[in-house]
Amino acid sequence: MRNNILIIGPAWVGDMVMAQCLFQLLKQVHHAVKIDVLAPAWSLPLLERMPEVHHAMIMPIGHGEFHWRQRYQMGQRLRAKQYDQAIVLPNSFKSALIPFFANIPLRTGFRGEWRYGLLNDIRQLDKQRYPLMIERFMALGLPEGKQLPDHYPIPMLHVTEASQQAVLDKYQLTLTKPLLALCPGAEFGPAKRWPEAYYAEVAKQKLAAGWDVWLLGSVKDQASAECIMEITEQRCVNLTGKTALAEAVDLLSLATCIVSNDSGLMHIGSALQKPLVAIYGPTSASFTPPLSTKAQVLSLALDCQPCCQRVCPLKHHHCMSQLKPSIVIHAIDTCVH
Question: Is 0.90 surpassed by the pTM of this model?
């Protein structure tokens, strides 16, 4: 019986949302288990909305930073927690150091970056057996070789009416019309971004039909949002770069429909079980799909897809430019009706 498990969480928003499948599976297998997650500070609003997580701890070391001494000191502090197992989701050498320094007896993760010794329950990843990222996460929560459940748990973020109302009041927003949330950004790179002019065309169509349109994203997405605002003559509500992640979660939970690139906000919208149109270009939904029956994936399935490149290597970006606004508008109507 494993009563106390530490998870070393992933470094990206979408991956953290998908990690909830592992947390749910652990709760199904070990009903009384306490799951603590060590993860970047930005992820706390997500972890707080996952009831399976007992305690979320901030990883004080940034992504890509080594800081051997800090990792040693944190591992020493965590010894008092007496964890039965650590599950290390990232594949890096440094991500396995803290569980090792914490003297956690069972340290589980996939083979990568010479982690022998740091991990003592080291798995060989079979990509054919586990094509989905959530399958790879969940496999680490079971004994090696054990079959995954027939029906997978799916991410479900919990939002309260109080938090929704608080964010509406803060940004002086009202909900009197159907609401379209557009998420035009993508951290991975420009290849994953559907053209701003296409987002603007979708916005104009829905504004004319009596909807409100909100734009959401990070500071890095502000240029895209400003382009959409200019084309739509400033008729959208531009929240890009203004909201904290917790506020973005609450705002997305109020949407009638969400349109998003393959991004962290797409996975959040899916985990909120909102009608969602997910636009895939250089990446593949066969690895990280939106995990919701209310989601519709749009992809052209061109010969050059998926290239998984940050910038189109062929310079034409057909996977996005040939996916016209009319296709997305039809998908919205299908999702909502």
Answer: yes
